[in-house]
């Protein structure tokens, strides 16, 4: 039987989804785990980001929100929906994260907030970012959608800034099929967010029931022996056209219970992903045609996947084609920098961002989740090596 690896996500067992009733204290469990003073659960990471920005808008006449030029298109859409102005900052090809030198040039007296994205689970250089942003008097809102559990100098991402948000979407290392978490350290600001939630967020029983069904389907079809069936359906698996009209909903007890169980083993999950990542990194050493993202000193990335940058885009595209044909779960993550999505033209500045454009044209990700076996990793490395003109790696 054909075996196909999902490109990212978290394997769920039936014991994980038999957690009905245990989700009432997810907010408290997450607050202790991070730690954080105030935690709110909503329908998605983009909803969490939007609600934070709506609260910030009430505190200031500033309107500019600085985000990386290479990130998920949902990030600028949430900024625009909040009635604010997107300002793009280039990223460093060495880290995939905000380039502090470019950030220094981007923030102004009109900057309402800066959103550093911990891309590919690798922490940003928060010391440099906070130093720059504090000088302009703006808050920092950490985007931890890909990085739950990552640490920098022993401190978890999501605890450096004034606010943070996490994603519980199906492709993340910490999931309940979909959902978002808002983190806030200030009592005053938390009260504003709570007001926004009370005004606009409702638990929709029918929508929640549909999402629970999707969660159960993910638990079943995420397995490599069945994932091929999902891939065979006429679905656009690499669709990058998102809408500003995303729902604002709550999360029911059942999915909170699943999320709480996944959170309870997240540290072990990250250690296992780290071991797979380090194995592949070691085997990739010495290959001239690629580079790996550099993590900051003192950091422990979450590695929801392993990102590889090919020096030549055609080599990346050939590796992606061959890995996908072999059922090994590759992804190009986001295929464009934000300035090249046509449907974002009226939202993001139409300037050039060389670092972001470089990463978008060359990035390939390999899965690191629990269904990845040793022979899978060896096949991945051999295909990458062959696409770079090397022989099979022993």
List the topology elements.
Blueprint: H1 26-33, E1 38-42, H2 45-57, E2 64-68, H3 74-81, E3 85-89, H4 100-106, E4 111-114, H5 126-135, E5 141-143, E6 151-152, E7 155-156, E8 163-167, E9 180-184, H6 187-200, H7 205-221, H8 224-232, H9 253-264, H10 266-284, E10 290-292, E11 299-300, E12 305-310, H11 313-325, H12 354-362, E13 363-367, H13 374-387
Q: How many strands?
A: 13
Compressed to H and E, one letter per element, the order equals HEHEHEHEHEEEEEHHHHHEEEHHEH
The Cα radius of gyration reads: 20 Å
Query: Main beta sheet, described?
Result: 4 strands, mixed
Question: What is the CATH architecture annotation of the domain at 266-387?
Answer: Alpha-Beta Complex
Please tell me the overall pLDDT: 93
Overall spatial form: globular
Key traits:
13 helices, single chain, 394 residues, three-stranded parallel β-sheet, Aspartate Aminotransferase, domain 1, alpha/beta
């Amino acid at each position: 039987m054909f075996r196909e690896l999902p490109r990212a996500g978290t394997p769920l067992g039936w014991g994980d989804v038999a957690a009905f009733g245990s989700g009432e204290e997810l907010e408290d469990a997450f607050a202790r785990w991070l730690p954080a003073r105030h935690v709110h659960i909503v329908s998605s990471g983009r909803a969490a980001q939007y609600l934070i920005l709506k609260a910030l808008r009430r505190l200031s006449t500033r309107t500019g929100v600085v985000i990386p030029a290479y990130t998920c298109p949902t990030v600028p859409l949430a900024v625009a929906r909040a009635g604010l102005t997107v300002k793009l900052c280039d990223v460093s090809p060495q880290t995939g994260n905000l380039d502090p030198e470019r950030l220094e040039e981007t923030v102004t007296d009109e900057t309402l907030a800066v959103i550093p994205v911990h891309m590919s689970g690798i922490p940003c250089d928060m010391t440099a970012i906070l130093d720059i942003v504090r000088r302009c008097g703006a808050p920092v809102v950490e985007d931890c959608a890909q990085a739950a559990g990552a640490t920098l100098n022993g401190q978890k991402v999501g605890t450096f800034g004034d606010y943070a948000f996490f994603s519980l979407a199906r492709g993340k290392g910490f999931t309940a099929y979909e959902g978002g978490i808002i983190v806030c350290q200030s009592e005053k600001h938390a009260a504003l967010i709570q007001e926004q939630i009370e005004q606009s967020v409702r638990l929709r029983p029918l929508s929640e029931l549909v999402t629970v069904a999707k969660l159960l389907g993910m638990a079943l079809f995420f397995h490599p022996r069945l994932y091929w069936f999902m891939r065979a359906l006429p679905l656009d698996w690499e669709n990058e056209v998102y809408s500003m009209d995303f729902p604002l909903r709550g999360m029911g007890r059942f999915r909170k219970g699943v999320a709480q169980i996944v959170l309870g083993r997240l540290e072990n999950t990250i250690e296992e992903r780290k071991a797979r990542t380090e194995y592949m990194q070691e085997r990739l050493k010495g290959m001239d045609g690629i580079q790996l993202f550099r993590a900051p000193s003192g950091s422990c990335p979450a590695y929801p996947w392993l990102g590889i940058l090919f020096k030549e885009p055609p080599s990346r595209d050939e590796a992606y084609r061959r890995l996908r044909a072999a059922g090994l779960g590759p992804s190009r993550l986001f295929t464009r920098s934000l300035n090249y999505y046509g449907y974002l033209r009226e939202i993001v500045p139409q300037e050039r961002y060389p670092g972001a454009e470089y990463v978008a044209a060359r990035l390939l990700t390999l899965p690191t989740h629990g269904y990845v076996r040793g022979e899978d990793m060896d096949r991945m490395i051999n295909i990458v090596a062959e696409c770079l003109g090397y022989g099979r790696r022993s």
